[in-house]
Amino acid sequence: MPYNIAMVSDFFFPQSGGIESHIYQLSSKLIDRGHKVIIITHAYKGRTGVRYLTNGLKIYHVPFFVIYRETTFPTVFSFFPIFRNIVIREQIEIVHGHASLSSFCGEAILHARTMGLRTVFTDHSLFGFADAASILTNKLLKFTLSDVDHAICVSHTCKENTVLRASLDPLMVSVIPNAVVAENFRPLSNDSRAADQGAMSPVDQRPQPAPIGPDDTITIVVISRLFYNKGTDLLIAAIPRILALNPNTRFIIAGSGPKAIDLEQMLERNVLQDKVEMLGSVRHEEVRDVMVRGHIYLHPSLTEAFGTVIVEAASCGLYVVCTRVGGIPEVLPQHMTTFAKPEEDDLVVATSKAIAALRSNKVRTDRFHDQVKMMYSWRDVAERTERVYKGITGDISPEEFYGSYPGQGWEVSGDRVRSFALIDRLKRYYGCGVWAGKLFCFCVVIDFLIYVFLEMWFPRANIDIARSWPRKPPADKSHSSNGGRRDQ
Amino acid sequence: MPGRLTVHRPTPTTASFTVSNAPRRSNPTAKVLFAFGILLRVLSFICVIAVAITRARHHFFEEGSFSTIAWEDVWSSAAGRYACQLVDSYNPSVLAIAGTLILYGVFRRGHTEESLLVIRGFGIQTSTSSSTYLSTAATRFIPTTQIQDIVIHEAFKGFEVRFYLAVIVEGEPGVLVVFPQLLPGREVLEEVWRGSRRCLYDTKS
């Protein structure tokens, strides 16, 4: 059964990044499956009002006040009137929020529950527990997630993190990884037209790429924003040692950020300008052209929920060296990666090992693209997300959705299917903390009163129903049944 | 109050769409009330003028000026004396403010009327009625050569998302919104949009 879905997040195009492209790809694949999807985000400079993208994807750029890094000011209630208007005129049934730092997303989930809609939340990032900012963020997340119908995380590490931060029932959290558009990340060997034929002809007929000789130059590519959490300090420490240990290696570094100056200083101190090329920031569509110039992709990040970029690198036929942090170990199979501990010595050793492996031609990087294409596709992500929607709307039974465990001492209780009654919602919020619980209850009651007031002041009958883009026929059943089983 | 649409189509190449939020006045009670309202407006207008004349009697309305009326007799009559006494007992500024307010009420148009006139081969004209009966409607004419398209789109207005009909005019940074004050609902707009496009571009009719 097709649904009307609203994706809500502070982060969307024209800003570019992982969350933005996730929302876009997921939405367009859901539209392909016959659903109606709209996106609600805040207004960007030069981009306000209502817009359409290809495929009939409708975007509401709500004019709102932006405080920090494209996040809107958290006002809890001020978003409600316009949100209610959009939800009614688009006949939305499911509200799907993205990114825990987005105040739009948190508010939308609260209001949607007040209005009696099903909600889903996707978490894209990992957070700590110790420092003051994390504690505050975690409380806010708890507020958002106390009443959500289902949560989705991009990796199992991320799921563990979210479950701990928001004290959720683990069965209410699904893992659905990100994906890549493999066609946009082809290795150099099967460029453009060759790739179309390559899909049809057997893999073995393709000419094997020239093996790397012992004296050939090996290029290591690093594409990341140069921030502390992306491990730029580690990179700065490791580059001179890697270059000293391995002659005939080159670095290409793309990306910008506050650590770019430190990196440049290191290059000047060690006189490595001829061996390390700095490209500055590159646009997302140029990433592939940078990647195919190299043989190894180095990813020194200190924290990462999923790490789409290493999938993109593997898809381009690069051997991946990465730190064993966050969700990264789940992302790629063993033979595509060399793992390092997030410390200088181990990173140098791992990179040298990877260079040696490439030089001895042990790694068949030319097969990576097809393997990645088999592993990650947005269609699969959309199918699994659709199964979550079916589970929360009751189109598949709770036993099937959450799994049935007879005789284990606990049952699939009724609390997982969240009721909309105000008293039940208050009970859930009250458990959030000694003071926070009472504060959250207060907010929920106010929100409910605002809702009653809005129903009187702006009656539903006066709101025009928007016309929908012509729907595509729903996807056939066979795909959804075999694709959706893996998300627990 | 939502706007009502009336369409006039005297020839196939001409069409006029009028949206108005004036009350409908179909039953006798409403008609009587409407007539009563007009009477009230006329009476209030006469009252204000009379008070103004009485107030200014020492300056303009004495013997000599406007000699068709015997002002001396007017002021010395019983009603005239009572009126003079009443008017003089109030502060002149209070009278001025009250008079202005009443005059505004008399001339205020209680409703808004907005229209779109489409003539093939010539252009379109939008008009929005003014808030009082004293000034004329604000109109804007766009010749056919400058019309790029007529579209229905959505925009944020206050706490709502509203549909609007807009004319894209060549060489202008913004669009021209038709019915900018009433912003009628989607069904009305779709009818106007279809009708005006048929009138402008359809070669069959």
From TrEMBL, chain A:
Specify the domain of life of the species encoding this protein: Eukaryota
Name of the protein: Phosphatidylinositol N-acetylglucosaminyltransferase GPI3 subunit
User: Which PANTHER family is this protein grouped with?
Assistant: N-ACETYLGLUCOSAMINYL-PHOSPHATIDYLINOSITOL BIOSYNTHETIC PROTEIN, PHOSPHATIDYLINOSITOL N-ACETYLGLUCOSAMINYLTRANSFERASE SUBUNIT A
Q: Where are the transmembrane segments?
A: 435-454
Alphabetical UniProt keywords: Glycosyltransferase, GPI-anchor biosynthesis, Membrane, Transferase, Transmembrane, Transmembrane helix
Gene Ontology annotations for the cellular component aspect, listed alphabetically? glycosylphosphatidylinositol-N-acetylglucosaminyltransferase (GPI-GnT) complex
Taxonomic lineage is:
Eukaryota, Fungi, Dikarya, Ascomycota, Pezizomycotina
| Physiological role | Catalytic subunit in the complex catalyzing the transfer of N-acetylglucosamine from UDP-N-acetylglucosamine to phosphatidylinositol, the first step of GPI biosynthesis.
EC number, UniProt record: 2.4.1.198
Recorded hits in SUPFAM superfamilies, A to Z, give: UDP-Glycosyltransferase/glycogen phosphorylase (SSF53756)
Q: Which GO terms describe its biological process?
A: GPI anchor biosynthetic process
Output the Pfam families linked to this UniProt entry: Glycos_transf_1 (PF00534), PIGA (PF08288)
List, in alphabetical order, the Gene Ontology terms for molecular function in this entry. Answer: phosphatidylinositol N-acetylglucosaminyltransferase activity
InterPro entries membership: Glyco_trans_1 (IPR001296), PIG-A/GPI3 (IPR039507), PIGA_GPI_anchor_biosynthesis (IPR013234)
Q: Which residues form the Glycosyl transferase family domain?
A: 214-346
Organism of provenance: Penicillium ucsense
PIGA GPI anchor biosynthesis domain: from which residue to which, for each copy?
42-131
TrEMBL record, chain B:
Keyword Ribosomal protein set for record: no
Q: Which UniProt keywords apply?
A: Glycosyltransferase, Membrane, Transferase, Transmembrane, Transmembrane helix
Top-level lineage group: Eukaryota
Name the InterPro entries for this protein. PIG-H (IPR044215), PIGH-H_dom (IPR019328)
Biological process terms from the Gene Ontology for this record are:
GPI anchor biosynthetic process
- Associated pathway: Glycolipid biosynthesis; glycosylphosphatidylinositol-anchor biosynthesis
What organism does the UniProt record list as the source? Penicillium ucsense
What's a Gene Ontology MF term here? Answer: glycosyltransferase activity
Q: Which GO terms describe its cellular component?
A: glycosylphosphatidylinositol-N-acetylglucosaminyltransferase (GPI-GnT) complex
User: What name does UniProt use for this protein?
Assistant: Phosphatidylinositol N-acetylglucosaminyltransferase
The entry sums up its family as follows: Belongs to the PIGH family.
What residues form the membrane-spanning segments? 32-53
| Ranges for domain Phosphatidylinositol N-acetylglucosaminyltransferase subunit H conserved | 115-180
